[in-house]
From TrEMBL:
This is Uncharacterized protein. InterPro entries: TRAPPC13, TRAPPC13_C, TRAPPC13_N. Coiled coil: none annotated. Residues 49-163 form the Trafficking protein particle complex subunit 13 N-terminal domain. It comes from the Eukaryota. Residues 313-404 form the Trafficking protein particle complex subunit 13 C-terminal domain. GO terms for cellular component: TRAPPIII protein complex. Belongs to the TRAPPC13 family.
Length: 409
């Protein structure tokens, strides 16, 4: 070979699946190109054989998609393509993260450097496994220092870059309790929703919420037959066979915020804790994500009195009276004299029939009452049921209801 040409070259190959191994994954493996190392049995795929179909894929074009949370297994190979032996004085492999932080994956023990003679057309390789925690551009940085036959010390460095992607899109939703919606201020359902971004099917095994202090959480995803220490929880399949991307799976937790002041953030959020999820991909690779912030919007300040239109008929005919139910809640600790009214000057095409207001009398603190009104749709179509309000007779304060849509035929 050319005298000016570096005799050492790094090669990085990805182990696309679990392969048999007769040695620990962190042991150094010596080999000789085109043959089998003397004194050892024949190598398995992944330990030096270059003809294993599907066993290796190399950087950069066929390295494959890499996803955050999955275990990346690579075989780093240092090959002496020169005609003379060399002596290694340093060998290390680092992982460069997207934020330029560097993590050491392997380094040759310095106390044994004089023993590492790499003969001509021989290689030294090591299987390295690392779980990726960041999305973005990574670099596998391979570095070695060697001495040639003249005793000159020379460095060699190669960087193999790849991009890791998020396997899922995370969305958090806050849902009221269906049986008691008025209690959903501090007690509600947390919807942990995951959209698959992988180009192949994946199966989620479990999702966990590590609740913050002041928060109680109940996992609603286990079956009644599941034991607390079950190591094989039910598998939630994100996709059917042959489909994958953009499919959605949802995990539910019952949340009870005991002390909102402890978990409320400066940005108007409730910090409920940290979420984690684990999965198995179609090819058998396992992955997990942890420390996902479980933050949802904090409830808005509650009015002293709330009024809402809680029920209307499913079928409303124009020019035919129908009955709607109104719910009024006193959120204070004291009894209040209240008056419920449908203001005729604020209504649209849905108007009250007969009296437009009624006294509710004293409504006790922390309690609710209901009232029924007859209404009439003046024309077919979609209308807003507007103009509903409650008046505090003593203070004169008014509280308006949201105006839901109704459809008349």
């Amino acid at each position: 070979m050319d005298e000016g040409k570096n005799p050492l070259v790094f090669r990085v190959m990805r182990l696309s699946g679990q392969v048999p191994s007769r040695r620990p994954p962190t042991s150094l493996i010596w080999g000789r190109a085109g043959g089998v190392e003397a004194g050892l049995e024949e190598k398995w795929e992944g330990e030096g054989v270059r003809c294993g179909v599907g066993t290796f894929s190399t950087l950069p074009s066929t390295f494959g998609n890499v996803y955050v949370g999955e275990q990346l297994r690579t075989c780093v190979n240092l090959y002496n393509r020169g005609e003379l032996d060399v002596v290694l004085s340093r060998l290390k492999v680092d992982l460069e993260l997207p934020d330029a932080q560097v993590i050491n994956l392997f380094e040759l023990p310095q106390e044994n450097v004089n023993n590492y003679v790499l003969a001509s057309e021989n290689w030294l390789e090591n299987v390295i496994s690392v779980r990726l925690a960041h999305a973005g551009l990574h670099g596998i940085v391979c570095y070695a220092v060697f001495s040639d036959y003249r005793g000159e010390s020379k460095p060699v460095k190669q960087v193999f870059r790849f991009t890791s992607f998020f396997p899922v899109k995370v969305a958090l939703g806050r849902l009221p309790l269906p049986e008691e919606p008025h209690l959903s201020r501090n007690k509600f359902l947390l919807d942990f929703r995951l959209t698959s971004l992988m180009p192949y099917s994946m199966h989620f095994h479990s999702a966990e919420l590590s609740a913050a202090p002041g928060v109680e959480a109940v996992d609603l995803n286990r079956n009644e037959n599941d034991s607390a220490g079950d190591e094989t929880p039910d598998v939630f399949s994100v996709t059917d066979a042959g489909t994958c991307s953009e499919d959605v799976v949802s995990f539910m937790f019952l949340i009870d915020v005991k002390d909102p002041s402890v978990v409320r953030t400066d940005k108007g959020k409730l910090n409920l804790g940290k979420l984690g999820v684990s999965w198995t991909a179609q090819g058998g690779g396992k992955g997990q994500l942890s420390n996902i912030a479980a933050a949802v919007d904090a409830p808005k300040a509650r009015d002293e009195v709330e009024v809402r239109i809680s029920a209307v008929p499913t079928k409303i005919e124009a020019h035919v009276p129908f009955v709607a139910m109104f719910e009024v809640r006193n959120n204070t600790q004291n009894s209040i004299q209240l008056y419920l009214q449908v203001r005729r000057d604020k209504v649209g095409d849905v108007v009250p029939v007969g009296a437009s207001g009624r006294a509710l009398g004293p409504v006790a603190g922390q309690s609710a009452t209901t009232m029924y009104f007859s209404l009439l749709a003046l024309s077919p179509g979609t209308h807003r049921l507007s103009g509903v309000r409650v008046v505090d007779i003593d203070s004169g304060n008014t509280y308006s209801a949201d105006a839901p849509q109704v459809v008349a035929v």
